[in-house]
Amino acid sequence: MSSITFARNERLRTVKAGYAGNKRFGSQFANGDALYNPDFSNVFRWKFLTKNPQKAEKKADTWVPAVVDCTAFLRSKADGLVWLGHASFVLRTGGVTLLFDPILFDSRFLRRRHPLPCRPEELTNIDYLLLSHGHRDHLDEASFGLLARQNPQLRVLTGLGMAPVLRGMARAPAVQEAGWWQQYDLGPGAPLEICYLPAAHWYRRGLADTNKALWGSFLIRAQDKLLYFAADSSYAGHFEEIERQFGPIDICLIGIGAYKPAFMMQHSHTNPHEAAKAANVLRAGHVVPMHHGTFDLSDEPASEPLRTFRDVATGGMLRGELHAPAVGEVLPWAEWE
Known about the structure:
The chain is built from 9 helices and 18 strands. The protein is of the alpha/beta class.
């Protein structure tokens, strides 16, 4: 039986009282208290034994998000929030620029269904790169290498165990790892706070590295607002824990796509109804959906996640105000009440 230990970055502040650190079974991080190893027989079942009842509908659904150019914003110092597609965002607050989970290029297994709203070369002057976890639709070597070259001042904020992964990709800038419920050290006088928080997910990039690095979500406190980036997560009790720790969230960025078939996806992502439930539990005042429309990862038709999420909102089942931006559209988050 694997030994059980608890891990955290002892140089960082733990914001949740009494939290011992992330539980590990041997070298694998637990998903909270339990060890979760995805059953990859489900991949075979999905790809070869399961018929998609929406196959024809999915094939006919050619919807893609609208795209507008955000180059002017990137070259400015204005506050704003921009969705680059999938789970990639640029957030600027008081002249500080943050970039979340950037995927800038196509790869063998991931091909964008819509263009980026800017040239990758425009992503300069990035202060913090926030990497929620190491799955390939959130972190790829080409994107990370370009960003490291273009931003020598870049500071990477991520989870435990990720630094060796990143240093194997590029001549890595400063990397700061955190466990759940830990606050990153941004130095004295920093105009914002960033915490690494739980997510119900898992890690794997290769054949023998399952759960060797941590996954999580981010909370940013800036301009007297709380912005929560849910990253990849299934619906679980951590949403209630986050609300109990921090109170109402002002702005919630949450995934609504890649949820069918349920036997394959339900332990990795939230569907639109679960995303709304999570945002409601967080008492989010504003909700920005993500993780849909950019890559073909699952069986639901392309337009279904956002269409369903809008139906939930118009039906009065979403507490916060829904913002469904075009890719590249600048959202004035700092002005939202």
